[in-house]
Amino acid sequence: GFFGRDFLPDFFTRDEKALMPQIDFKSDDKTYIMSVELPGVAPEDVKVEVNGNELTISGEKKEEVKEDGKTHVQERRYGSFMRSMTLPEDADCESIKAVTKNGVLTLEIARKPESKAKSIEVQKG
């Protein structure tokens, strides 16, 4: 019919990157800010974990099931997703704040203060 394979050929192939969240990563002198696109994912279906300096964002985009008609085209993707990355060495993994708004998860990660050289007095022995 009208919505056959020639109409939308690319949408009938499932690849593993279909649900890979897209990320913007910015920083200033005090903070790293990561914005993660998660449209259609409820906050309770998102998990953010830190192990050492490895940050993992995972979750599931669930399909809304309605029994009130036939589906002719389904372009939206559903299922589990996971994205991991190594944070910079000066990221303070103990102070991560996560807020979701309008389908975007924003992670605010404080930067550790820069270590300053310490002068050590050499004594005569």
What is the element layout, followed by pairings?
Blueprint: E1 23-27, E2 31-37, E3 46-51, E4 54-61, E5 79-86, E6 91-101, E7 104-111
Question: How does this structure look, described?
Answer:
The protein has no helices and 7 strands. It is mainly β. Strand 3 and strand 4 (54-61) form a beta hairpin. It is rod-shaped. The protein starts with 22 loop residues before the first strand and ends in a 14-residue tail after the last strand.
Q: What form results from the Cα inertia axes? A: rod-shaped
Beta-strand residue percentage: 35-45%
Detail the poorly predicted runs: 1-14
Main-sheet strand order equals: 1-2-7-6
Sheet with the most strands, sense and barrel status: 4 strands, antiparallel
Please tell me the overall pLDDT: 83
Number of strands: 7
Distance between the termini: 93 Å
**What level of helicity do the residues show?**
under 10%
Radius of gyration: 22 Å
Helix-strand topology string: EEEEEEE
Structural class: mainly beta
Helix segment tally? 0
